[in-house]
Structures are given as structure tokens and as C-alpha cells.
Design a protein that fits this description.
It contains 5 helices and 2 strands. The protein is mostly helical and 110 residues long. The structure holds iron/sulfur cluster.
């Protein structure tokens, strides 16, 4: 498995945001921390596991939380940003809003 570089991980987030019509978190320090977490997770597990959740280190179990996670769309639709606040809706940013803690849908499905 080839490790991902920071540049490759940044590109990955840019591609996801572009494809979905989302924006990346404009807080550079915060964004950098998340990207670094994503890169470390890729290089540890072999996939871009969410940088603000705990991995099980088993692909079948972690799959829903591989970035962009399956909850990103409903979270962005409801709250304006994903759980990590890596991706934000254009409306949310245009409104000058700041991301806040939101519930994690990962364990809310039982
Ligand atoms: S909450 Fe979802 S979309 Fe946001 S960084 Fe984590 S995995 Fe990616």
C-alpha cells in the first residue's frame, strides 16, 4: 500500500468538495488538523477513515465512516456541515455561520 502525502490528501478533499458542491472549512488551522488526521488514517488503515471518529480498523465495520461518510449529506442538509466540519454547504458559509458540535449519526441508527 502506498502512503498518501499531505498534498494528495488535500487534493482528495478538494475533489470531494468540488464533486458534491460543498466548501472546505475556511479555518486553515482547523482544516489542516483534519487533513492531517485523514492522511494518518489512510496510512494506518488503508482508507480515508473519518478524522474525528474512532476506527474499528476493519474495513467492513469502518466503511460507512470512510470520508465522505454516509452521514455527510444529511448532516450538511440539516446542519450546514458534516460531523467533523471538514465540508460545509455554500449557504452555510455565505450566511457567515460557524460550525458547532452536532450529533453523530453513526451510532444513532440502532
Ligand atoms: S464527518 Fe464524514 S464527511 Fe466529514 S470528515 Fe468525517 S467522514 Fe468526512
Amino acid at each position: 500500500m502506498n502512503d498518501k502525502t499531505l498534498e494528495q490528501t488535500i487534493l482528495f478533499t478538494q475533489m470531494v468538495a468540488h464533486k458534491q458542491g460543498w466548501l472546505l472549512n475556511p479555518d486553515k488551522d482547523f482544516y489542516d488538523t483534519l487533513v492531517e488526521g485523514l492522511m494518518k488514517n489512510y496510512n494506518r488503515y488503508g482508507y480515508f477513515f473519518c478524522p474525528c471518529r474512532d476506527a474499528e480498523a476493519r474495513y467492513e465495520l469502518d466503511k460507512p465512516a470512510i470520508c465522505p461518510c454516509i452521514w455527510s449529506k444529511p448532516d450538511i442538509a440539516e446542519f450546514g456541515h458534516c460531523y467533523c466540519a471538514l465540508y460545509l454547504s455554500r449557504e452555510f458559509v455565505a450566511g457567515g455561520k460557524t460550525p458547532r458540535a452536532i450529533p453523530d449519526r453513526r451510532f444513532a441508527q440502532a
